[in-house]
Write a structure and sequence with these properties.
Blueprint: H1 2-13, E1 15-25, E2 36-46, H2 65-73, H3 80-92
Length: about 90
């Protein structure tokens, strides 16, 4: 999982770094058995070598912790798995 997250970060954003697993969750255990893993990658370096798939349009936006909280409060960030991953990060602090 950690290696896959590191690989995806590089592919999607051009950033690289060393990750560690900080959490796992079951998105909908009532009807599914899949898991979602949260990998924290700190001290990243922008290599400028992103390589998204042809059909992907990706824009990397860097936000401060306060900007992320604002995005959640005002509804700009609504994905429950993303918000839960951020909470898992907060628990690490």
């Amino acid at each position: 999982m950690v290696l896959a997250a590191e690989r995806e970060l590089l592919e999607e954003t051009g950033y690289t770094g060393q990750g560690r697993l900080i959490g796992t969750m079951m998105p909908n255990p009532a009807i599914q058995t899949n898991r979602c893993y949260t990998v924290l990658i700190e001290e990243t370096v922008n290599t400028g070598q992103d390589s998204p798939d042809d059909f992907e349009e990706i824009e990397t936006i860097l936000l401060s912790s306060e900007e992320v909280k604002h995005a959640i409060r005002c509804g700009e960030m609504q994905n429950a798995l993303h918000i839960t991953s951020l909470y898992q990060y907060e628990l690490q602090l």
